[in-house]
Amino acid sequence: MPPQISADLVIVANRLPVDRITEDDGSPGWRRSPGGLVSALEPVMRANDGAWIGWPGGTDNDLEPFVEDGLSLVPVALGAEEVEDFYEGFSNGTLWPLYHDLVAKPEFHREWWDAYVAVNRRFAEQAAAVAAENATVWVQDYQLQLVPQMLRELRPDLRIGFYLHIPFPPTELFQQLPWRRQILAGLLGADLIGFQLPGAAANFVRLVRQRVGHKTHRDLIHLPDGRTVRAAAFPISIDAEGFEELAARPGVAARAAEIRESLGNPETVFLGIDRLDYTKGIYVRLRAFGELLAEGELTVGHAVFVQVATPSRERVDQYRRLRDEIDRLVGRINGDFGEIGSPAISYMHSSYPREEMAALYRAADVMVVTPYRDGMNLVAKEYVACRLYNDGALVLSEFAGAAEELRQAWLVNPHDINGMKAALLEASRAGPREKSRRMRAMRRQVMEHDVRRWADTFLSELSCVGGRDQPPLRRV
Ligand code: GDG
Fold it and tell me: Which spans in 338-403 are helix H?
């Protein structure tokens, strides 16, 4: 019998916080997937009989709700065609590029939209089934923008929050979407809509005022049915203490030294870590590095670029093409400048355990984060948290949400390749005092604004909007 779930706090996200694995005896099992969202929400979930609704990955369709390590998990099944149309199609082929400033061209297909509606409805129905009376439901991200409205229709007693992890586009771009009205109406089902940056929240409120005609006052939207919705910024962060603790482990320090050793102990290790995604500006940063080698500003043996590109959305065409382009560029730069035992670029298309990530952060002199557009970018914050001795330098795109908090980074415009080259050189040549001054300020910001604080702030603001009389969540 599946457990009967009646939760006071329900998280609804595209993915469950676990991955399917095969146990030693060959039976199927689950392993907690690493991620800040789970660790941030875990304490409040435990204190409030929380449940998490999400897709378990794959197309296994007979999964019942289950309890894993004390957390109630509710799988939402997707068929193979829905994975194509809802996930790879509308979510990652339409919304992802549209919300990232058209870095790639979004495709609009009516059958993708139909699948998006059907899958959002399934998530909303599951949430309605497991939420206790007057419960709080927190819906996550761009794949599920219709859920708030669908859920409100099913369960008007609930308090509903929504958080968008990626940027919200300017009005002119959003207007391209044939289903723009439905998306806005979907989001307005929430009591509180959270964005990474104040600018995104302001874009949303303006759009609702100008295009839908609802009355707005500052960050509040007044709906004709008498409800008030608030749209505001809640910049996400990382488990900063967790990363700091990881980086301080002797095994991680030893691994960092080993990494540098195996790179030939160069003076400067540049590092990039990203999902292999066209928004992240991986190609352009490697090109900048290649030009610096060609011009003799940097030399192999003294400088090396380590790039980790974690596999992502490999069945989507644009991602396959990007992978080929980067493969070719890395091959060319290494062919032109590499020497036996000293490649110019050490490129890994794979994913690593958290310990190895922390060792890489510790091993790198210059962290290079150059997205064309990014909601926040947690990698930049993780690097900062791992620099225990206030050394190291961060080169950061102005177009990452993180740039609003990490002002002491070397900020760059990824469209300006010369500017980026200058910043890479400056960051690599800066003296220890300058680096320490910048890093100290950034560390203070990251350590004080961690992901626990993000979750607590959102949930406590959510309990204040709407003016309805509901019991607050138990705090931890
Ligand atoms: C979206 C928004 C926003 C990467 N490779 C490995 C690995 N990672 C981890 C990193 C980091 C996370 O994945 C990536 O987070 P980012 O923020 O950099 O980027 P997105 O995946 O695009 O995330 C973004 C975020 O949501 C949160 O709201 O900041 O703007 O696009 O934590 O460490 N982790 C492990 N092995 C890897 O190989 N263990």
Answer: 354-363, 378-386
* pLDDT tens profile 13-40: 999 988 888 888 888 788 877 666 777 7
What percentage of residues in the chain have a pLDDT greater than 90? 83
pTM for this structure?
Answer: 0.96
- For residue 50, what is the DSSP state? -
Give the residue, out of 352, 378, 449, with the most ligand 1 atoms within 8 A of its beta carbon, to mutate for a pocket test: 378
Q: Please check whether residue 2 lies inside any domain of the structure.
A: no
Looking up residue 433, the CATH number of its domain turns out to be: 3.40.50.2000
CA of 105 to the centre of ligand 1 (A): 23
C-alpha pair distances (Å), 440 with each of 245, 293, 315:
17, 31, 41
Name residue, tokens 């590095």. Answer: 289
Q: Tokens at residue 283, please? A: 């190609």
Q: What is the pLDDT of residues 73-85, one digit of tens each?
A: 999 999 999 999 9
HSE at residue 465, side-chain half, CA atoms within 13 A, is: 28
Domain that holds residue 216: 7-236+453-464
Cα of 357 vs centre of ligand 1, distance in Å, is 12
Task: Report yes or no: 362 and 257 within 8 Å, Cβ to Cβ.
Answer: no
> Which atom of ligand 1 is the closest one to the Cα of 36?
32
Q: In total, how many domains does the chain have?
A: 2
